[in-house]
Amino acid sequence: MGVCSFFPLLCLLLFFSRAGALFGYGLLRCQLISSDNIVYLEQVYFNKVLLVQYNSTLGQYTGYTRQTKEIADDLNKNHAFLTQERKNEEKCKTILPWMFDDFSKPVEPSVTVRSVEAVGSKHQSMLVCTVYNFYPKQIRVTWLRNGEEVTSDVTSTDELSSGNWLYQIHSYLEFTPRPGEKISCMVEHASLMQPKIYEWDPAPGSEINKIAVGTAGLLLGLVFFGTGVTYYKKNTTGQVLVPTS
Ligand SMILES: *[C@@H]1O[C@H](CO)[C@@H](O)[C@H](O)[C@H]1NC(C)=O
After folding, report:
1. Within this chain, do residues 120 and 36 fall inside the same structural domain, yes or no?
2. What is the pLDDT of residues 145-172, one digit of tens each?
């Protein structure tokens, strides 16, 4: 703890003793409460216990154990330390908004429309429009039938967090197919200049094509393999092993 109390730099100490490992570490944190409210924190932990902390909102150190309370009191009387902390806080305040701008750029979602089994529905078919990896959270996903918005038999999940600052949403449409109609999923989002429309393809030819190409490739491979094996057999069966003495 002795060394760690004399931060301002990030301090990481690892002690090994016969009793086991002791782990002390310091954390410098810039907390973004909102784009104009930034809190600078400096924390020293030892074996996961917070011992002492500088909080820029309070403008002083706080000790959380008997010993560190004394240290915090001393540090709070030390102008050099407090001045350095205010400098660190300023750094935080200049760097963070810039990062915030960078991170808050809209991210365009990837969208697919496919049919899923309609279970327990009065309709024959069910489509799902999956919208992955967008930012920010606000989004509007709607269904269009021949260009007209469909409002009934539509259900949707909430905007779910994917855990990586990005969001996903899944919208379902139950319907009874009619020949010649066009069904599509429309997405409106900050990353898009205008609403983007993703049409549902009832007979996804691409899948069938992939299977066809794959099968043709496999057959061609087999032909070459067969020819090779036949050729090899022909050439080896004619050979006679000459015994050496
Ligand atoms: C920092 O101090 C402010 C004001 O007392 C308080 O609201 C905030 O919770 C403190 N932050 C931490 C992480 O202790």
Report:
1. no
2. 999 999 999 999 999 998 888 999 999 9
Could you give the C-alpha distances from 210 to 44, 148, 174, 215, in angstroms and in order? 58, 33, 28, 9
pLDDT band at 103 (very low <50, low <70, confident <90, very high): confident
- Judge contact between 130 and 170, C-beta under 8 A: yes
- Token reading at 112: 């697919």
Look at residues 55, 84, 103 and tell me which one is the last residue of a structural domain: 103
Q: How many domains does the chain have?
A: 2
Ligand 1 atom closest to 55 (CA): 1
**Is the CB of residue 165 less than 8 Å from the CB of residue 155?**
no
Q: Is there a domain that residue 218 lies in?
A: no
Residues 18 and 43 in one domain: yes
Is the domain of 142 the same as that of 77?
Answer: no
**Per-residue b/e over 19-33, b at no fewer than 16 CB within 10 Å?**
eeeeebbbebebebe
Q: Are residues 29 and 93 in the same domain?
A: yes
Q: Is the pLDDT of residue 123 over 60?
A: yes
Most ligand 1 atoms within 8 A of CB, residue of 44, 57, 64 to mutate: 57
Same domain for 184 and 133, yes or no, is yes
State percent of the chain over pLDDT 90: 57
Q: Is 55 in the pocket of ligand 1 (CB under 6 A)?
A: yes
Pocket lining: 41 vs ligand 1, CB cutoff 6 Å: yes
210 domain-assigned: no
Residue of 50, 55, 64 best suited for mutating to test ligand 1, as the one with most atoms within 8 Å of CB: 55
What pLDDT is attached to residue 167? 95
Average pLDDT over residues 209-232: 89
